[in-house]
Amino acid sequence: MIRGFYTILGSERARMVVFLSWVVLYGVAQGLAMLTLVPITENLLDGDLSAAAKWLWPLAVLVLICAVSAYIQSLKGMTMALYAMRMLHHRLGDHMVTLPLGWFTRERIGDVSQIAVKGTMFVGSTGAHYITPVVVNTVSSVVVVLGICFFDWRIGLLMVAGTLVLMYVGKLSSQFLSKAERRKRAEAVKVNNRVLEYARCQAVLRAFGAADSAHVPLAEALGQQARVGKSMLWRSILGILLNGLTVQVVFSAVLALGAWLAVAGHIEPALLVAVFGLAARFFGPIGELAELGSTLRMSTDEINRITGVLDTDRMPVPDQPKPITEPGAVELSKVAFGYDNGTPVLRDVSLRAQPGTMTALVGPSGSGKSTIFRLIARFYDVDGGSVKVGGTDVRDQETGALMGQLSQVFQDVYLFDDTLWENIKLGRPDATDDEIRAAAETAGVTSIVDRLPDGWQTVVGEGGSALSGGERQRVSIARALLKDAPIVLFDEATSALDPENESHVAESIRRLADRSTVIVIAHKLSTVIAADQIVVLDDEGGVDDIGTHDELLGRGGRYTEFWNQRTAAAGWTLTPSS
In 3-state terms, the chain is what percent helix, strand and coil (to 5)? Predict the structure, then answer.
């Protein structure tokens, strides 16, 4: 545990070295202070008060050293723990922004949220409150054992052997508990995800009358967590009992050996009584170490989880980035890609979006339209082929340079729990007020401001909960307009927008197309017709055809089927039943 703590401290390791130095001094002084009690007790039992009094001065000095070192190590430990938590938060944050966006699955997000909050807090708490008793008890016990060997080597050797037995039993108890602790942690992550899901899906649950009844997935996760927790509790109790029993057996063996030595005349009774008192004090810290075993294991597991995140491979960054050669151009060449399950999503996809044009992607669900967006933005790296943005392979560009060329308007827009103004300003933090207002006006956001209680300074809530879906997409478009990137990736909303929102979105797409290369996942017929080229994807992740609207209709095939289905659906009306 201490080694793991030292490893993750990084630049703060010097603080730990200073802290441990004071802790070791505290442990040595405590052990020596206990050893001075042997001659004091022996002389008192022999009636030699003057000899006993001589040992009071060394004892007083050692007690003073214990007090001073205990105070200083406490301050150093708390300071180190606070620095460690701050440093871990920074390291985790700095590292996570370098990870591939595809790494952030739902399960990992739940795990990382626990690591960043509970994990770092637990590790910091361990550094502040548990390293000291572990080191002090260990060091003082070693000093005491060595001292007892000086007084009587036979009892000393038996205590050394007993300590080894205790360490072995403690290791067995640790292994007995470790599997249950890992299961408990995994179940805690599942419960965390289910609770978030339950909170976020209240609208759906209430719409189907399921809000008043038990949410089955959450109830099952809580039930499984309770069962795993119960199993871990029993294992923990058994481990504590086993450790306690072993301590008593070893101590009894020491008493038996000492009694035999006294009866046989190999040790003075007064010295034996003093050694017995010291042995009793020795087994106290050993028992405390056994009781701390569960906490130390949990701390080690948390350190391993933190290290696991920090050791995750970053998105590869080129040592010598290449400059862009064709601003606004996007090209996919023979791209093949599949997610972690190994199933191919894209097969031999090739397409090119010329600078300043609009390209519409159409195709059935699961054909890879969103995946193409993710590859252009380098959420993932391709399995085969290449993706070029600005005429340069995305793998040869710095992340900042690549992102600087792209604006992204997602279908599921996420707004931060901040003001409307700040959410738009996120598109370009150094933008002037006039530029922000102009982008908002073009995207139709200013009409939203009038109805909000605090206007531009209205806090929109987590995820933008204070706004409708169409209004959130307008804010996202305003961000894209404000950023004014040469390439825009636009995912049209599949759900029906009200006429006002749809009009603003359509106008915004036209404005974006006037100034940027736009690649849009198109669902509306008007967007498809307006595109300079249409890329038709088939249900196996390949390109079926590429061309303009008229060219594709003239050739027939999959696009004609798509067009006929959409035009037929556009003419549907709801009529009252007879």
Answer: 65, 10, 25
Handedness of CA 79, 85, 90, 92 (dihedral sign): positive
Q: Are 306 and 88 spatial neighbours (Cβ–Cβ below 8 Å)?
A: yes
Torsion angle of the four alpha carbons 30, 31, 36, 42, in this order, in degrees rounded to the nearest 10: 130
Dist CA 182 CA 205 (whole Å):
32
Q: What is the mean pLDDT of residues 365-387?
A: 90
Across-strand partners of 490? 409, 520
Q: What is the pLDDT of residues 447-491, one digit of tens each?
A: 888 888 888 888 888 777 788 877 888 888 888 888 888 999 988
447: closest CA among 512, 501, 508, 502?
Answer: 501
What lies within 8 Å, CB to CB, of 465 at 6+ separation is none
Say whether pLDDT at 386 is over 80: yes
Cα distances from 322 to residues 49, 384, 391, 426, in angstroms, run: 86, 20, 10, 27
List of domains in the chain: 2-310 (1.20.1560.10), 326-405+488-495+519-569 (3.40.50.300)
Reading the block at residue 194, the tokens are 């289910």
Closest CA to 159 of 150, 175, 239: 150
CA atoms 449, 452, 453, 457: torsion sign: negative
| Mean pLDDT within 537-542 | 88
pTM higher than 0.70 for the full model?
no
